[in-house]
Write a structure and sequence with these properties.
By secondary structure, the protein is α/β, with parallel strands linked by helices. The chain is built from eight helices and 17 strands. InterPro entries: MeTrfase_TRM5/TYW2 (IPR030382), SAM-dependent_MTases_sf (IPR029063), TRM5-TYW2-like_MTfase (IPR056743), TRM5/TYW2-like_N (IPR056744), Trm5a/b_N (IPR040601).
């Protein structure tokens, strides 16, 4: 049956579907169709949507034949309520304080039509500079790899990650894509807190020369594996350790800086200014009270820039709610050297 659909390249299909699902726009009464006659690598996917007028403007809406389908059996169908969970590759993450309720949700997730290999429950808060947490394994199919390890796909890229070793949030896929879309071929991009590479690898794929640093050896190990996996290892230089150790080597080098270390990134504003070239775009992430969410990031950059750079705010963006009255935000700013 012909229905309004978002047309998207196959490699971007899962990330786009997740983006539409977050906005409650996927029409669950119909299946996703694949373009007829196209080679697999060139084929488009057609994702049916409930309200074409509500689809973000950067996505293409067309009418296309899609198959009617029997709706998937969801965890909510089995539980009688809508549980909160996140999918990271074939691992599902839940956040329940009540062990019995957590086990009930895990059982429903496994019995549902969601493709899942393991179910984990958060067993601690995020800890220390590495921002990892403990996990309780609620379900595990028993494959060779650890239940905390998976391969996550977003916007045409693959990221191997072990959530017991490194921090990773699938919720930030749209935000990461927003930043990467601004990258121009030939840029010098420095990812100061790179993790497993969800910014660094797409930036390299967009044609940038990337330097990626992280305190955690496991994060850099996964980043290097992911760079190979995505065919961009020749455009990424990695560094294990404090990013401030790179200021002499990469002084005045960067055209773009990603500072995704909420709570403390603003404390590295002096380092960011040391890296900045004559004109440098900075994406500084922070978590602050809703009354003044951007003030600390802006003040930190302006104080660090002093009379060396003019600081221009490009965008103040709320990424998501973090806690009651606290927001995870991103300040996009440009540093222009003052002659």
């Amino acid at each position: 049956m012909e229905r309004p659909c978002v047309a998207v390249a196959r490699e971007d299909g899962e990330a786009t579907r997740q983006r539409l699902a977050e906005a409650d726009l996927v029409d669950q009464e119909y299946g996703i169709a694949v373009e007829d006659g196209a080679a697999d690598e060139d084929a488009k996917l057609f994702i049916p949507v409930t309200d074409p007028d509500a689809v973000p403007g950067d996505l293409d809406v067309v009418r296309h034949d899609v198959p009617a389908r029997t709706p998937q059996r969801t965890p909510a169908d089995l539980l009688g309520f809508e549980p909160t969970y996140e999918r990271l590759g074939d691992v599902v993450l839940v956040d329940e304080d009540d062990p019995e309720r957590a086990d009930e949700i895990a059982e429903a997730i496994v019995e549902s039509d969601i493709p899942v290999r393991s179910v984990l429950n958060r067993d601690s808060k995020v800890k220390g500079e590495t921002r990892v947490r403990d996990w309780a394994v609620l379900a595990d199919e028993g494959e060779q790899r650890p239940p905390t390890e998976t391969v996550h796909r977003e916007y045409g890229h693959e990221f191997a990650v072990d959530v017991a070793e490194v921090y990773f949030s699938p919720r930030l896929a749209t935000e990461r894509h927003r930043v990467v879309e601004q990258v121009e071929p030939g840029e010098h991009a420095l990812d100061m807190f790179a993790g497993v590479g969800p910014y660094a690898i797409p930036m390299a794929d967009a044609g940038a020369e990337v330097v990626a640093g992280d305190l955690t050896p496991d994060a850099i190990r996964y980043l290097e594996e992911n760079a190979e996996r995505n065919g961009v290892a020749d455009r990424i230089t990695t560094h294990v350790g404090d990013v401030r150790e790179l200021t002499d080597e990469y002084e005045n080098w960067a055209d773009r800086l990603v500072m995704n270390l909420p709570h403390t990134a603003a404390e590295f504003a002096d380092t960011a200014v040391a890296f900045a070239g004559d004109s440098c775009v900075v994406h500084l992430y922070d978590i602050q009270h809703e009354d003044a969410p951007f003030e600390r990031a802006r003040s930190a950059l302006e104080d660090a820039a002093g009379d060396q750079y003019e600081v221009t705010t490009l965008e103040e963006r709320v990424v998501r709610s973090y806690a009651p009255h606290e927001l995870n935000v991103c300040l996009d700013a440009r540093l222009d050297r003052i002659d």
